[in-house]
Design goal:
Organism: Nonlabens dokdonensis
Number of strands: 15
InterPro entries: UPF0353/GerABKA_families, VWF_A, vWFA_dom_sf
Protein name: Ca-activated chloride channel family protein
Helix content: 40-55%
Pfam family, one: VWA_2
CATH topology of the largest domain: Rossmann fold
Keywords: Cell membrane, Membrane, Transmembrane, Transmembrane helix
Number of domains: 2
Order of helices and strands: EHHHEEEHEEHHEHEEEEEHEHEEHH
Structural class: alpha/beta
Shape: elongated
Largest sheet: 6 strands, mixed
CATH architecture of the largest domain: 3-Layer(aba) Sandwich
Strand order of the largest sheet: 6-5-4-7-8-13
Amino acid sequence: MYLLEEKIYFWLLCLIPVLVVLFIGLSYWRYRAQKKYANKEMLDHLIPNRSWFKPILKLVTVCVGIIFLVLALVNLKAGEKIETVNREGVDIVFAVDVSKSMLAEDIAPNRLEKSQRLVTEIINNLASDRIGLIAYAGSAVPQLPITTDYGSARLFLQSLNTDLVSSQGTAINEAIQLAESYYSEDTEAAKILVIISDGEDHEGESVAVAEAAAEKGIRIITIGVGTEKGATIPIKRDGIIREFKKDRDGKTVMTKLNPETLKEIAEAGNGAYIDGTVTATVIEQLKEELAGIDKVAFDSQQYADFESQFQWFLGFGLFFLFLDLFYLERKTGWLQKLNLFNE
């Protein structure tokens, strides 16, 4: 089993065709310059030991060295050792509001990106809890089932956008109902639902649904993103604001944070409301909420213990670059007698 840790460094392989083009250009320029001042017979007399093969060999050696150095930077990892890991924690489902109102920029850079950063930081501060992800607007859409794979959670989180859900609006009740299906009936782990939203609830049934979820043992924590002052909703094309969202009467829509709704949902769900303005504060308050919850042991899982192999590629890369220093552009004496390359 293999893993490439930093694939972005493969772009450095573009240096190789650049070097080849420069080599061809330099060789052509040198050939033209030599031909200008002397013919072939005279050059053979003036430079009797010049080699056409050695410069090509030097180029190949440098290119091979670059390939190995790039592989070292990519850091190929090999997983051979299998370990059994026991985890203890709770089941946390994140429900992120992806309605158009989350594009408002009353909190930098906008509400949706702020929500993504909040959830990312929360995940980074978790130890061994299982997590799931839901996106919702006018309806709720599952993104990631309950898992311990934090890497996948971050990838799905980064891909959230306001086009994921075709029906617009903010139906927090549907997010709560969908979250109920995430939790296994057999598990004894505590069930936590974290709702990140601006609190604009267009359905109005969320409090009742939260109470029903609490009766099933689900604890709901809400995080408010936005400001009570509010902001308009920009509509961008190619990263440039073209207009602002308008209602049916042609008036510009003003969206505001509604903390009261989120507080009511959290209270009905036996949880707490957290202001999402300051990320560090959110992390601290959420830790306090989770601290008093009993953690249970999950089923043992097997993980491959990946070991970095970059040192081998680094060694070979430096070897080939060092070897290039010993290549001279004139013919090798003892090989000249063999005439292996027909020089």
